[in-house]
Amino acid sequence: LPRLFEEEPRYEKQQEEVLDRDLMAYFDDRMRHNWRGPEHWKVTAFKRANNIDQESKPKADTQQTTHEKKKHDAVVVDFFGDDVDEDTLFEAPRNPSTLVKKENSGLNKLPDDIRYTSSRLITLFTKQFTISTYSVKPQATLTDAQFFGDA
Amino acid sequence: MNQSEKPTLKSIKNISRTDEVNNAMRHVFQDAQMGLSGHRKLVIVLKNVFNKSVELNQQEYFALYLTRIINRILSLKKGEQVADRIAKFCASFIRSIVEDEIEAKQNKESDEDKEEDDEDEENESPTTMLITYLIHHLLRGIEAKDKTVRYRVVQLLAYLVRYIGEIDNNTFEALYSSLNKRLNDKEPIVRLQAIVAISHFQVFNFDYTEEESPFEIDITNASITEKIIHSIRHDESAEVRRAALLNLKKSQATIPYLIERARDTNSINRRLVYSRISRELGPMNNIDFKNRELLLKWGLNDREEAVQAAATKMLTTHWYGSVKEDLFELIENLHVKDSDIAETAMLIFFKSREDKLSTIKIDEAYWKQLSIEKAFLMRTFYCYCQDHTLLELVDANFPEAVDLAETLEKYLELRTKFIASNSENIKAWESHNEKLEVFKNQLLQLENTMSRINLETETHKKHLDAADDNLKFLQLEEQVSELNRFHEEQKDNYVPFAEKLQDLEFIILQLLLIANKFDYGDDFGRRKMLQVIRKRLTEDKLPGELASIALKVLKRISLHEKDFIAMSTEIITDIRDSYDNEDEHFHSAVSDFDDDDDDEEEEDEIEQDEDEEAKQKKRNEPKLPPDDIVIQCLTMSQHVLELIEHPLEDYTSLTSIYSGLVNYAINYKEKATLHLLGLKCLGLFALIDRSTAEDAVATLYHSMRSSGEQVRIIGMKAVIDILSIHGVSIIGTNIFSYARLFYKSLTNYDMPGLQCVVAEGLCKLFLTDIFHASSTSNESEEGDNQEYESEKQLFEALILTYFHPLTSKNQELGQILSFCIPVYAFSHPNHQARVSSVSGDVIYRLFSDDEFTHHDHKLSATSVIPQLIFWCDPNNLVNLTQFEIKRQTSHLWQCVYLLQALEQDTSKVVKRAIISNLSKLYLTDKLESTVLKGLAEALEGTKQCFEENATIPEYQLDKLSHKNLDNFIEYVNETYAKSVEREGEEREKSNLLSTNSILGELENELDTQSQHDKSETEENVETNEEETTQDTDKEINEDISDNEESVDVEMQDADDPVDDLKRQQLEENLREIDEILDAEDSVDYSISMEE
DNA sequence: TGGATCCAGCTACACATC
DNA sequence: GATGTGTAGCTGGAGCCC
Q1: Which of B335, B403, B399, B400 minimizes the C-alpha distance to B372?
Q2: Is B779:B727 a contact under the CB 8 Å cutoff?
Q3: In this structure, is residue B990 part of a structural domain?
Q4: From residue B1013, how far is each of B832, B1052, B1079 by CA, in Å?
Q5: B845: part of which helix (H) or strand (E)?
Q6: Acidic residues: which segments have biased composition (chain B) (predicted)?
Q7: Same domain, B716 and B781
Q8: Do B858 and B964 lie in a common domain?
Q9: How many domains does chain B have?
Q10: Does residue B246 lie in a domain region?
Q11: DSSP string for residues in B84-127
Q12: What does each C-alpha distance from B233 to B229, B264, B768 come to in angstroms?
């Protein structure tokens, strides 16, 4: 893929394809999640964009301490100790309704997935024909990082 | 025995006091908590202690001590190993004593056979006593305040309920109703355990149809299943639903609910349906076709790879295995004729079972005698081999072209004969079809009328009584039920015939699909195929899908496009001519329409003369050809036009026939099929001929304005396609009308289908820069600006539609925009700049404009803002090097617009959301120091604004927001400092010594420049021609949305390539930032800032 | 068993409501 | 003032694969 190593963006003449094959595959992949609309949108590749708290944490260290902590934390019950006060243990809530969840009428199902693809985005509605771009601008291609990274 | 001595079997024998029992028990549990491995031994020890207590007649003390021991683990949180082990240990112990008791009973029973029966049936056994005691104890805590206590209680009960066969009815009733209540516990972990517990009751028999139920509450197997089903569907916790999924009894009655979870929002649950539940359901035939189809459709298309993989495995391993690896049986079960997923399933099968490809053998005998399954396998196998260039398999299995053509001909001939020998059935079908047509016509007319009434109501503010039309709708409903009766009435005659015909046509379709991909190496075969296709297309009156594929084959085997057009024209002419003998009028009718062409072209004004139209119709009335012929010709024309790739040049034959047919059809507004086909063909025709397109857009525009959703969708698709092919110039100076139409359609939530089309269409036009290509057009400056404003408003409307509360009701629209908006933004820096330029307006309007705020379920600022920021993040741009990404200004500009929204009268929630998201903006020291400086100053201004308004509640920030804002300001200042430093170093290295003097000159020049043009990014440098003053902007700024005038704080993209005026650009940018922020107080925001 | 991933719960805080 | 609700960021557990 020689294109990857070209430094300058390529400026294309009119009537070129909007997205090339690689780019379509790239977008189809990237848009795989977050298809359900704004209320279900989640940040995915956001960390990379966040340049403020970018100091890399010494991961190994923290991991070890948590690991150790986990081991040490193991609780052992003393069955010879004083008995638990049952009145406290079984104490009822002041308002019993706080134990009840609100009724949910939803079905917890995904909506029908129309599986929108980039090929549909660059194809006409009424026939199988790819739309061309009208402007004079560099044709979109993947950046190196995108190709080697998440692409 | 003292506390330090652990009990042994021997020491237990010596126990004589209850405190010794207690001590022994504590020891056992002290050990049991350490691990599962010792449990077997400890169970024996504890059992001995229990038996000893029974022996001493102190079993109630044993029970008491046991509950005290258990109390100690009830407050241990979920995940605490110790508590889990103790719970398991209790379960093991209870199981063990229950088993012992059963064994003892059996032994006793066999003894009793010899002796007389005892009387102790009535008495409660020590084991039952213990279990009952334990249950009552635990039930005391089942409604405890502490969720952990409830969790542990229900967990223990879930273990115990497996061994409760002997408990009394009252205890059971108390247990059952308490557990039932926990199905609605606030805490998911409690509900989950309650599901597990209640699931065990499914195996009990609560059949009280013969006898009276011993329970006072409703306990039946059906009610238990019902409760689990309620949880599997409605519980909002994925883990609870999972527990219900895994524990619900698998039966024909529950299958639909199990299958339904293949669409669960949780991907683990979906995967489980395929990996585990499907196996538990047994052979694929245990599930009916409809549900199998759903499973495949959902699973093979799932967004999660893991789910897809599990679904693939289910198909290719479990189901395939369940039909003993018989591929034909598998295909038979797929019901290929009625299935939408069979093809995908087959291709996935081939891909994941490549080992089976070589076992497929297709010889002469095979393809000479095709069943639908054989034909389907042959076709999908062929397509798979072709797509994966498995040419050896193709050569080994598939016939020569000439044989394929002959086979195809054979089946086509079979079809013709079959139809000919069933004329009665055909008549029945035709008459049914006629009724159907009448129905469609009425529906379309009614839809159009309703739409017109709505339009008139809106435009003239008249209230029209639509009662009449409602009545008509009711009448139509009656017709629907009548039409639906057809299949019922024709059960014996037509239905079997239709099925057989469909089988034949399905086989033909498979052959055509092969022919469409076939390698016509030998010319003899090609010519044979050509002959078959041409003949059959002309003579056979093939149904839509077959005709469409046949035409594709024709195109494939034609010499070139011109040849294809000539042949198809001839075919359509022949179809028409075949009826010439029967109806002389038809030919002349078409000629007449040709003559009408001129009239038509004159008619592209907005107001069409209804009388003239009617007159024209009348004139044509006597020459009417049979509708079905016209429809057939038009359908063929549509398919032909769909296949033409090149602009129309001198295909006059095509022009004369199609423009005649098309105009004829369009005028028949009361004939649905004809009218809609006419519009489709008009649109398609316009795509290959610019002059047709010019008229077509006007015709389509009028049709849309006065019609219902069906017509509008067809019209909208056509218009957008025409714009995609010919550009905006095709609509001349009328851009405003069209923009308004687009806007109205986009925001018309009564026509959800139309919304989808226009949203997708606008995205296409923006993505391809067909919209916003103003710099290349030759329109006047004013025209340019109007176009620009219309497009800007449309773009903002698209973004607003994505976030609109009502869009959650139009799933398809949401999905389209979820895909298209980010693709648009990420595909070019200019696109990203455009998104950032509307960010401020979007936020302001979403959270302050009544249009958006008065709905329920509206989105929060904390979810909207990160999305806007994500779309504008330069890291998401394609096409750029890391260096270029670091120099992108989209986030910087977005920041300016966000600050603007921050300083406006937005609510506190919005302000906080903006501030907390500022840290997500990607601003680097590779940006020019001048713009960073501008941003830093803007931020100071914002800070000041907050100080000045400190008395207003909205401007009183909480601690965290203060900190976040200060951190961000500091970050920008640091970045600015670094940038200055970097530029200094670069200047030193650079030998371009004249930079300063150039800058000086430019600064002077800047002062004289007009004050309102804005530009974006280094690549885009504004040219003088594009300058406009603020005043001109306002004068021509008509608002397509009927709202107040829109604010003109906008960056204007220019498409000129990079030149060496970067410095000027940067100065501009800096000035921009100042201006935008200064303007806040004085500018009259369109988005009406109601006080 | 360990690693990667996703999800849900936890905590701290702000704010609304009773 | 107590209580409930909503949010952000973190963390640990669950289910899976190898």
Answers
A1: B335
A2: no
A3: yes
A4: 19, 7, 14
A5: helix B829-848
A6: 112-124, 592-613, 1018-1030, 1038-1058
A7: yes
A8: yes
A9: 3
A10: no
A11: HHHHHHHHHHHHHHHHHHHHHHHHHHHHHHHS---STTSSPPHH
A12: 6, 9, 43
In angstroms, the separation between the Cα of residue A64 and the nearest Cα of chain B is 21
Size of interface A-B (CB pairs under 8 A): 284
Structural domain containing residue B932: 657-981
Domain check: are B714 and B726 in the same one?
yes
Average predicted confidence (pLDDT) for chain B: 84
Interface predicted TM-score (ipTM) of this complex, two decimals: 0.86
Rounded to whole angstroms, the distance from the CA of residue B915 to the C1' of nucleotide C4 is 34
CB-strand contact B919/D, under 7 Å: yes
Q: With contact defined as beta carbons under 8 Å apart, do B390 and B382 qualify?
A: no
Specify the residue for token string 């066969």.
Answer: B165
Q: Of the residues B557, B575, B590, which one is the last residue of a structural domain?
A: B557
Report if CB B869 to strand D is under 7 Å. no
Which residue among B146, B645, B919 places its CB closest to the CB of A50?
Answer: B919
Say if B847 falls within a structural domain: yes
Q: Which pLDDT score, from 0 to 100, does residue A5 have? A: 31
Test A38 with B814 for CB contact under 8 angstroms: yes
A74-96, pLDDT tens digit by residue?
A: 678 999 999 999 998 998 887 78
Give residue B461's region: left, alpha or beta (phi > 0; psi -120 to 50). left
Contact status of B816 with chain A (Cβ, < 8 Å): yes
State the Rg of chain A over Cα.
Answer: 28
Task: Say if residue B966 is in the same domain as residue B921.
Answer: yes
Q: Which of B531, B557, B583 is the last residue of a domain?
A: B557
- Contact call for residues B1055 and B830 (beta carbons, < 8 A): yes
Distance A36 CA to D5 C1' (A): 26
Pair B463, B422 in one domain = yes
pLDDT at B121: 55
Calculate how close chain B gets to A62, using CA atoms only, in Å: 22
Contacts of A104 in chain B (CB under 8 A): 234-236
Residues B257, B232 contacting (CB under 8 angstroms): yes
Residues 6+ apart with CB under 8 A from B1041: B743, B747, B793, B797
Helix ranges (DSSP H) in chain A: 21-30, 59-72, 86-89, 118-121, 144-148
What does the pLDDT look like over B916-970, one tens digit per residue?
Answer: 999 999 999 999 999 999 999 999 999 999 989 888 888 888 888 988 999 999 9
Cβ neighbours of B877 in A, within 8 Å: 143
Question: Closest nucleotide (CA of A69 to C1')?
Answer: D12
Structure tokens at B494: 């037509």
**What is the dihedral sign for C-alpha B936, B942, B944, B946?**
negative
Distance CA B205, CA B210 (A): 13
Query: Counting runs of H as helices and runs of E as strands, what totals does chain A give?
Result: 5, 2
The verdict on B765 and B884 lying in the same domain is: yes
Distance CA B1022 to C1' C10 in A: 53
* E strands in B929-1067: none
DSSP assigned state of B273: I
Q: Do B185 and A101 touch (CB under 8 A)?
A: yes
A149 contacts in B (CB within 8 Å)? none
Instruction: Assess if residue B466 is contained within a domain.
Output: yes
- B743 and B859 both lie in a single domain: yes
Can you tell me the distance from the alpha carbon of B237 to that of B232, in angstroms, rounded to the nearest whole number?
10
pLDDT band at A61 (very low <50, low <70, confident <90, very high): very low
pLDDT of residue B855: 85
In DSSP terms, A11 is beta-bridged to A138
**Residue A113 and residue B830: Cβ atoms within 8 Å?**
no
- C-alpha distances (whole Å) from B227 to each of A58, B164, B196 are 50, 21, 12
* Nucleic chain D contacts, protein chain B, residues 77-106, CB cut-off 7 A: 78-79
For residues B917 and B996, membership in a common domain is answered with no
Residue B844 identity: Y
**Residue B583 · residue B626 · CB < 8 Å:** yes
